[in-house]
Design goal:
It is a single chain. By secondary structure, this protein is α/β, with parallel strands linked by helices. Helix content is about 40%, strand content about 15%. A 5-stranded parallel β-sheet has the order 7-6-5-8-9. Helix 3 crosses helix 4 and helix 5 packs across helix 12. The longest helix has 20 residues. It is globular and about 55 Å long. The two termini are about 15 Å apart. Bound molecules: phosphoric acid mono(formamide)ester and norvaline. The site of phosphoric acid mono(formamide)ester (CP) has 9 residues, from helix 2.
């Protein structure tokens, strides 16, 4: 079963094939309106369930549009409105949904929910974000980097701020796509050690540098994300802001990176907090290409899951 649960759980050759197919599908649609069908309709006759236990703009819309462009049908489900949110087990939910749909995408809190769903489903399951990882985002980011600058292998990516779920998937990608990653942020918000060690074992240079100005030296790509994620308690907000303020991406910090360095943010951004307007709207920013590429990358992920 081709579940898309995480980047480090998917082979480098499959990941590469997905990125290349995403680029080709994007190219083939150039100039078309968003609602126009793709020439090929690989998802014709297929039903996709999109389950959300957390808010979403990009993931929700890009998956839904992607399914439709490929000729399939989708249904967006809110976890709290399903029996799942009222005591039905995840395993039973997986078995029932497998009788109705061909593919399930879920955004949830605990990773265990995703894993239990995948274990009990008779159809492929896609991780649309958990507290721990966000692989679809990083597939879009790889596509975006390569569109602008060519192969990401051997490049230096700097993650500044919270070592969160999106950062974790970027570290996984470093190992699988063969790039180096420097994390800069406060020690209390470091990424999980196990993820760092796995990527290092695959040959990537993964470093932690506390001084953000030093960290971004020689960077090809600078990335950040919100300082308070959806699963973080609001009571930690002030402490997080105080700890993370030195790691804000601003023009002065970007000036320390390579001259042609790109800036990425998965969005939604908190302008003036983790990143300034000047960087968000500046020439190095590719944030809206990233958002668009969620659509193209996930179309390739869905085709891979279904073997289509
Ligand atoms: N980047 C991302 O996953 O955005 P949404 O939360 O809007 O889906
Ligand atoms: N780290 C953020 C990403 C949102 C797309 C969160 O989990 O809220």
């Amino acid at each position: 079963m081709n579940h898309f649960l995480d980047i480090h759980k998917t082979t480098p050759s499959d990941l590469r094939a997905m990125i290349d197919q995403a680029a080709a599908m994007k190219q083939a649609r150039a100039g078309r309106s968003k609602g126009a069908a793709d020439d090929a309709q690989p998802l014709a006759g297929h039903m996709v369930a999109l389950i959300f236990e957390k808010p979403s703009t990009r993931t929700r819309v890009s998956f839904d549009v992607g399914v439709r462009q490929m000729g399939g049908q989708s249904m967006v489900l809110s976890g709290s409105e399903m029996q799942l949110g009222h005591g039905e087990t995840i395993a039973d939910t997986a078995r029932v949904l497998s009788r109705y749909v061909d593919l399930i995408m879920i955004r949830t809190f605990e990773e265990d929910v995703l894993l239990e769903l995948a274990e009990n489903a008779a159809v492929p399951v896609i991780n649309g974000l958990t507290n721990r990882t966000h692989p679809c985002q990083i597939m879009a980011d790889i596509l975006t980097y390569e569109e602008h600058r060519g192969p990401i292998a051997g490049k230096k990516v700097v993650w500044s701020g919270d070592g969160n779920n999106v950062c974790a998937s970027m570290i996984h990608a470093a190992g699988q796509f063969g790039f180096d990653l420097t994390f800069t942020g406060p020690e209390t918000l470091d990424p999980e050690r196990v993820f760092i060690e796995e990527a290092q074992a695959k040959g990537s240079k993964i470093e932690i540098v506390r001084d953000p100005a030093r960290a971004v030296e020689g960077a090809d790509l600078v990335v950040t994300d919100t300082w308070v994620s959806m699963h973080d308690s609001q009571t930690t907000k002030e402490r997080r802001h105080n700890q993370l303020r030195p790691y804000q991406i601003n023009a002065a910090l970007m000036a320390q990176a390579k001259e042609d360095a790109l800036f990425m943010h998965c969005l939604p951004a908190h302008r003036g907090e983790e990143v300034t307007n000047e960087v968000m709207d500046g020439p190095q920013s590719v944030i809206f290409d990233e958002a668009e590429n969620r659509l193209h990358a996930q179309k390739a992920v869905m085709r891979w899951c279904l073997g289509l």
